Structure of N-succinylornithine carbamoyltransferase:
Amino acid sequence: MKHLTHIRDLGPEGVETILAQAAAWKGKAPAPLFLGRILGMVFFNPSLRTRASFESVMLRGSGNAIVMDVGSGVWKLEDRPGAVMNEDRAEHIKEAAPVLSRFVDMLGVRTFSAGGDDEQDEVDPVISAFRRHVTVPLVSMESAREHPCQGLADMLTLRENFGSTKKLPVTLTWAPHIKPLPKAVPNSFLLTAAAAGCEVRVAHPPGFELHPQVRAEAEAYAKATGGSITYTHDQAEALAGSRAVYAKSWGPATRSAHTAGDVSALLASHADWMTTRKTLSRAAADALFLHCLPVRRNVEVADDVLDHPTSRVIDGAENRFHVQRSILSWLLSA
Amino acid sequence: MKHLTHIRDLGPEGVETILAQAAAWKGKAPAPLFLGRILGMVFFNPSLRTRASFESVMLRGSGNAIVMDVGSGVWKLEDRPGAVMNEDRAEHIKEAAPVLSRFVDMLGVRTFSAGGDDEQDEVDPVISAFRRHVTVPLVSMESAREHPCQGLADMLTLRENFGSTKKLPVTLTWAPHIKPLPKAVPNSFLLTAAAAGCEVRVAHPPGFELHPQVRAEAEAYAKATGGSITYTHDQAEALAGSRAVYAKSWGPATRSAHTAGDVSALLASHADWMTTRKTLSRAAADALFLHCLPVRRNVEVADDVLDHPTSRVIDGAENRFHVQRSILSWLLSA
Amino acid sequence: MKHLTHIRDLGPEGVETILAQAAAWKGKAPAPLFLGRILGMVFFNPSLRTRASFESVMLRGSGNAIVMDVGSGVWKLEDRPGAVMNEDRAEHIKEAAPVLSRFVDMLGVRTFSAGGDDEQDEVDPVISAFRRHVTVPLVSMESAREHPCQGLADMLTLRENFGSTKKLPVTLTWAPHIKPLPKAVPNSFLLTAAAAGCEVRVAHPPGFELHPQVRAEAEAYAKATGGSITYTHDQAEALAGSRAVYAKSWGPATRSAHTAGDVSALLASHADWMTTRKTLSRAAADALFLHCLPVRRNVEVADDVLDHPTSRVIDGAENRFHVQRSILSWLLSA
């Protein structure tokens, strides 16, 4: 049985398979790909694009989705093996995952990082518990370590605009925020861009390094695909010659930076990392702008970037639909 | 592309179109009017009738609905142009509206008035932001200024019972409540009743005047349709000869009445405006009772009115289904 | 019009009808049993299995469900006749039930016991108010007194494993918990097991007696079916020779035990009632373990019981689907 919770489930070859199918089906009349099929969607965290796009994929393919919100409409769920369950989590994933598997054909789970502990994000406890206990294919709708659907949608957007991603110079640039965000999206951009053969530049202030295991995994993909990855604290250096700029905020690298002292002040001290038209002027003349959304306007990215014709944020969001249709079809294939 | 966020989108002629189609289809076997179509429903506020009736319209027409709750299941949304988004609203409607438009065929939005500021209600900032940024037809499921589906359902109820609404004497009477409510429903009753040619009487205590712009718009409709509108502080005077009584609570006219002093005390001081059988005895002998629901029994309206054979509150709620089927079909027509 | 809110709506004969149809359809390709039909689902309380299983039943039968959460997405509802509605409940079931009935073909309601008042649970005020005011068939998704779908699913699980439930020795054993739980599930197990002809043994600590009216009703069913019921405070005595062990926690029998003193301490004082492999060793050699879920692992039941091959908790949860398909089909039959 197939699952897609991390890019390593696909590797560079699988990334090509998903993207090729997504591109082939885009714009064509939707076929009843999911006739009689149900996707169960379990949300531990809020969602707009993910909820609407996955549900739309199922409905437009003549299938259906069942949406469950953990902690409001649904019991809080325990993931720790052997737990003595005498606190607020009323049900264990050991039961929830196999039980839901009896009622649906595929399961999607969204579960954000608890924040501030990259080692725990590597373990990815909630999605991993689901993976151990489901009996139907599982797809990540973003977990602590990765948001693979987002990374794949970003690659589709790049390919549509540039034809190929082979050795395409792209910058992932850190953005300011009012609070420390999870690293699932930057991790996924890095991993999928490397798997798609991009020349990836990652720019961030000191102290915001991505996790060594994620970086090593991306490095291996780049080596396999002829891509490359460089890291810098100098935004302008990264941008030089970049054909695409991907802005995203994420929290500090070390746990101590979250707990000791004022994270807000740390984030605010890098307010000049906000992407503006001036920032973009340092990239290639035809550079496009991408962001995963939601975006805090005039904090992460200036209005004039988002409202400029070179922005692909709305097209990029639409591509969530197209890659997810491809993913769900792949999950159901033998 | 068509939208229906305010009665001015229809005018008296459009009101006739919607009502005629709703009446023609009522009671007939539902056709696959919405085959393969998805209505996205965005709720900033709770709903029972609206959620169930819109979803039922889509399902009975072989379509589907995707339901999103802002602030619980979905990110809080920003509507202000140029906002520096460093507070709790994580996403701008400038992104949310066009992104959702890529996943659905129509969008519905419910967004109550923030309360106490009629000028802001005239601006109707949230639904207006959606209207600017959607790329599919938009329908209001109640916004700050109006609740057009409710007003149209009320007119259908009147026509079913009285054959015609031309010069039909109807009273909109203010009702007591435990808190100041938005004016979307009374505004919509006034506007649609005027557009349908009714002889409208509006009765309320001093200080609860409806907004001058709404009144002027209704006046223009009445002039065009041969209807009329009168305002009084004397409930009995309004009721004399009325064939239908529509009770509804709303808040004070001026912002100062909300902020300065005790609104609850103000509302309580008019407790005798509650509709009882005795109130209704002042109307025509065959007068019917309507209310948009939800209704606070024995605060706004007495049990004996709601449980009396002359009440049309349940039939009126059912008519939400019928006018909404007509509206959504009209929105999708070229 | 048929309703299923309590086992008395079926009696022993109806229980047989539901179980026979559920068994006959299990494993067969789903037919379009619910083509064009909508089940409205109103949740006053959280749910995982119930929500997913009912929605799946409708979707797999070519129908649909509309899900509403009272108090978050939907107004809080009043059930008391004659109430002066000046508190937080904005809508009366007298309106909500008939209005929803206009938009759907069947209604399901989940409404837990307020807790600690068995007399009120007997009255079962919320589901009873819905029953009085709906105009379409109503099914309980658990109310204060009973959870009939759960009881029926448990009987299906027993029959699948043992062929027949006639004089089958089964133990319902009380389990420890961190808080006092409603009695709907133990009540329903008792009632359905008696109606299915089991030899039922109920074991619990002193002070946790089930309500006399429930016990009397179960006794009548047992008399009619050749079953039997015994009560004991001695878990080992009950288990001797039992072919199935059903563990479930519930609160004290008397209201005073809830209000006076520390319920948590009372519950904790019976921590040794947790079901372990050692507990099960006192039952028959081939004894199976059942639980309605959610289960607090290592509080109510030890890991080694739930993870043992003799556990039927996941299969039992799947049977919710099968009995509910049978129930909804029965509700719609003339």
Summary: The radius of gyration of chain A is 19 Å. The interface with chain B takes residues 43, 46-49, 51-53, 55-56, 59-60, 64, 69, 72, 178, 293-299, 303, 306-307, 313-314, 317-318, 321 of chain A (CB under 8 Å). The mean pLDDT of chain A is 94.
